[in-house]
Amino acid sequence: MNRVGIVGAGITECRSRWVEATYWKLFQMAVRAALEDAKMTAAELDAVVYGIYNDMFEHMAIPESALTGWISMGLKPGVRVTNGGATGFYAMRAAYMEVASGLSDIVLCVGGEKATDCFDPQSGTPTPAVVGVIAQSWDPFYEYPLGATASDSYMGKCMAYNDAYPGDIGDGLVRAQMIEMLCRQGNRNPFGQRRKETVTAEQVLASRWIIAPFLRLLEACMYTEGAGALIFANEQKTLEICQRTGRQPIWVKGVGAANEPYAVGRGSDNLMELPRIKSDHLAAYRAYEMAGVQPSDIQIVEVHDAFVAQLMITMGELGFVLMGKTRALIDDGVMADIQKLGDEGRPEPGQVLINPSGGLIFGGHFVGGSNMFSTWSAIREMRRRQVPLSLVHGTGAINAAYGGAMILELGEEVRA
Amino acid sequence: MSQNQTVIPQEFNLPAGVRPVTGLDGIPCLELATQMTTLYWQTYGEQSRFFQALIEGRLIGAKCPQCQMVLVPPMTWNCPDCGFTDMEEVVLPHHGLLAATAPITIFPPAGQHGNAPYARGYVDVAVDVAKASFLPARLITTTGLPRPGIFVKGVKLKLVFKDEREGRITDIFWVPWDEIPEGLRDIEPLLASQLQFEDPKPPVIKRPFEEVFTAVRDLAVKAVRSPRAVENLKAVGTRRIGVWVGGGEFTLSIQNGCLEVKRVSDPGVDFVIQADDPNVFLKWANGGSLSDPAAEGSLWLPNTEAFGILPALDRVPRSVRRDEGEGKLSPES
Question: Which residue numbers delimit the Thiolase C-terminal domain (chain A) (predicted)?
Answer without folding.
Answer: 282-399
